[in-house]
Design goal:
Layout (H helix, E strand, L loop, with lengths): L1 H16 L16 E5 L4 H12 L8 E5 L4 H14 L8 E4 L5 E3 L1 H16 L16
Parallel strand pairs: 1-2
Antiparallel strand pairs: 1-3, 3-4
């Protein structure tokens, strides 16, 4: 009986400590300057998110961030935006600048678009993690 109880408790502990399949975090901001659509399991999106988090980018820019692989509402919004803009294809990471109406797809273009006004405001010339992270040329 003690052995079964021990196995049960150990199993519950191991399952709860694995972290499971946590959903990606959306940032909902309808007034944002940037709309960023990403896939929770997309390696390119994970790379962009890592660079953005490393440089605290999401707190420095006005952004709306929406996951499209698992969230059908976000996916519908993404597909409607692509149709409205006349963009062919639906790849992520996808960033839309609501001020300039520019679109960027891929890690490096998306990062450059999201930081373009930020760096012009601060007078800096380098983009985040240019020296520390290698960018995908997707």
């Amino acid at each position: 009986m003690k052995k079964i109880f021990f196995i049960l408790i150990t199993s519950i502990f191991l399952l709860s400590s694995c972290g499971g399949d946590r959903p990606p975090v959306d940032i909902i901001n309808p007034d944002a300057e940037y709309r960023y659509f990403f896939g929770g399991t997309c390696p390119h999106c994970q790379e962009l998110n890592a660079i953005a988090n490393e440089n605290d980018l999401y707190s420095k820019i006005s952004i709306e961030k929406r996951e499209v692989y698992r969230n059908s509402e976000n996916q519908k919004m993404f597909l409607e935006l692509i149709e409205e803009l006349g963009v062919e294809g639906s790849w992520v990471p996808f960033v839309y600048d609501t001020v300039s109406w520019e679109v960027a797809v891929g890690v490096k273009p998306a990062l450059e678009l999201m930081t373009s006004r930020l760096w012009s405001k601060t007078g800096e010339e380098n983009t985040p993690s240019e020296a520390s992270s290698s960018w995908s040329t997707q």
